[in-house]
Design brief:
Chain lengths: 146, 73
Amino acid sequence: MNRTQKGAWFMLGGALLLIAFGIYIFAVMFVAGDRMAGTGWLRVGSLPLTLFLIAGVFFIRRKQSASEPDSDEREKAIARKSFVWASYSFWLFCACASFGIFFVVGAKSVVPAYILPVVFLAGLFLAQFVESAAILIQFARETADE
Amino acid sequence: MSSDYLTNQVRRLRFEHGQMTQQQLADKVGVTRQTIIAIEGGNYAPSLPLAFRIARTFDVTIEQVFRYEDEQT
């Protein structure tokens, strides 16, 4: 597995972990409420994320051989194509979310301000998923053709 | 990135040059072994600089390594 593939797996795993962490925070703040006093729950929840980040850095930096380049032209071409797909998905998601909200709540209705950053962040997560998946699929297709 | 009309003799030239491994060729031309595998399998068309580096590694011309099959041939 080359560095680009490792990076794609790492970003996929990191995005899933962040989503899980977000659900954990939501559950603590809005479900558990006063029963979870203090910040101990935040430290416990942050531990898997921190360990994952540290392990991920070592995982990505480890090379198959000492002479392996960090990234060659083929990997850059695959990464470029994947980034384009991620950009398309981000804009498509933001457009669908904007018009979806417009048609669901109506033209003259009011939505909370936090909706905007939520849509933006959700779009970023989706773009990261698409980019990582596109990288891994392109590498897998080349391997399958052998 | 596959090229239906570009064929190459990289694998044959590797064996003719002291049974060179894919990793050794990759180290000489500055790419990963996976890229060499993709080139030999016809799944990736190298850039001109890379194609020239491969040809010079084998001390042959670029036309002796890569061949472009026209649609009409």
